[in-house]
Design a protein that fits this description.
The protein is an alpha+beta fold and 446 residues long. The chain is built from 9 helices and 17 strands.
Length: 446
């Protein structure tokens, strides 16, 4: 497939918006702050293609009036911090054409083709102050269908916030009004405030991750991506397996997420053939919107997640029942409350240089920490309103994550059919993938 005639323009807010420097919270400035790619596919639009493009641009411009931080730019300030310049510079809108039909794509699953349909960001050669926080590409196919590829800066919005924006943009594109404006004041997470205490509580998720005992450099190994479907029956089997071991009769059963995440962690340890004594970490995110006291305002726009880890040795992860591994995840999740989140914020506020806790530019070579083998990361999209973005020409036929090529990264999302099935989008080294697939399904039925 060839994608050609790529032209772009900057879409700015339709009306004048507040301008000035917006303090980012510590949760905005740590972890992954690069752009997160997603893609939507639509069968066809009955209207003239130029009208489609004009409608998308005009509605985007109107929506940015409410979501004006997305039209700004990031800049570096002292002590390795970032701030958001709300300057109305705009978002980048690319138009492109593909010499293929939607039906020619392999089940619309992530593939190298996605690199042509979702805009990439040149972090290495573009000054931070010039990088748009939202870059999107609309690609028309020969059949009349089209794709919408989005890359949104994680420094400005987490998954909930990004999807809130997409939902409101789609609503405006259909000729409706914005239903719920975003809550933009990051002071609720103490953005710009001094720390409340100088006492440092250690948070192991900010330390270096485990490395392979034999010292092999895993960074340069080739990776591949797959989508593993779990039927509703398989999901139920995994939950039942996890819940065979309960701490006490009154304890709450393990959730789908806890059981499936534990299964992914165990399977990766087996597929990678670790030594029993090999230390391994599982990284995941916990949404804090309802864990704060009081809870964050509805439609808080920003990052309202904390990164957590569970740790162990491969031998204990593989040899113990699934419930044992699930309990490690449960314990970490239950640790997150208002006091814990504020201790994380204070820990980060007390750091002399915050850049060491941030992935702003994808690392290459031997730079930075490596979170791949022997570790895994599992992100849940199960609570996100992923589907149903109707811009006026019907709902998408497929929505999913864009390209990701980091060893051990995975996403859990709902199957499209609403039948209780789930999908695990996984990136792993090529040499481990086939064994992972085999063990992943084999262990469900054991």
């Amino acid at each position: 497939m060839r994608v050609f005639n790529k032209t772009f323009c900057m879409v700015k807010p339709a009306d004048q918006t507040w301008s000035g420097k917006l303090n980012l919270s510590e949760l905005d400035q740590t972890g992954v702050t690069t752009h997160v790619p997603t893609i939507y596919f639509y069968k066809q639009s009955p209207e003239d293609w130029l009208i489609v493009l004009q409608t998308l641009k005009a509605s985007l411009s109107s929506t940015l009036v409410h979501f004006f931080p997305l039209a700004g730019r990031l800049s570096f300030i002292a002590r390795g911090r970032l701030e958001l310049d709300c300057n109305g510079a705009g978002v980048q809108f690319l138009e492109a054409y593909a010499d293929a039909n939607l039906a020619d794509l392999d089940s619309l699953l992530p593939s190298p083709v996605y690199h042509q349909l979702i805009p990439s960001i040149d972090y290495q050669n573009t000054p931070l102050e010039e990088i748009p926080l939202l870059v999107l590409q609309v690609t028309r196919f020969v059949c009349g269908g089209f794709s919408l590829g989005l890359s949104i800066s994680h420094a400005v919005a987490d998954g909930q916030s990004a999807l809130h924006f997409v939902s409101e943009w789609a609503r405006v594109s259909r000729g409706e009004l914005v239903e719920t404006p975003p809550y933009l004041d990051r002071k609720v997470l103490r953005a710009g405030d001094p720390p409340r205490t100088l006492k440092m509580v250690n948070h192991e998720q900010f330390g270096p991750p485990p490395v392979l005992i034999d010292g092999k450099n895993e960074r340069e190994n080739e990776t591949t991506v797959t989508m593993l479907k779990l039927t509703a029956t398989q999901v139920k089997k995994l939950r039942n397996k996890a819940n065979q071991i309960q701490k006490c009769e009154t304890s709450r059963g393990f959730s789908r997420y806890e059981a499936i995440t534990a299964h992914i962690w165990r399977t990766s340890c087996k597929a990678r053939n670790h030594k029993p004594e090999q230390p391994t970490a599982l990284a995941f995110c916990v949404d804090i919107r309802n864990k704060m006291r009081p809870p964050l305002p509805q439609k808080y726009f920003g990052n309202a997640i904390v990164n957590m880890i569970a740790t162990g040795c491969s031998g204990e992860i593989v040899s113990n029942p699934l419930g044992f591994v699930s309990s490690k995840i449960r314990d970490a999740i239950e640790n997150v409350d208002d006091e814990y989140v504020n201790s994380v914020i204070d820990f980060l506020k007390n750091q002399e240089d915050l850049s060491q806790f941030r992935e702003l530019i994808p690392t290459s070579g031997d730079e930075g920490h490596f979170y791949g083998n022997p570790n895994v990361g599992v992100i849940s999209w199960l609570t996100l309103p992923l589907y149903g973005a109707d811009f006026g020409w019907g709902k998408e036929v497929h929505m999913g994550p864009g390209t990701h090529d980091s060893d051990g990264d995975s996403l859990i999302l709902h199957g499209k059919d609403g039948d209780g099935s789930l999908v695990v989008a996984l990136c792993l080294q090529v040499r481990h993938m086939e064994e992972f697939k085999k063990v992943f399904y084999q262990d469900i039925d054991m």
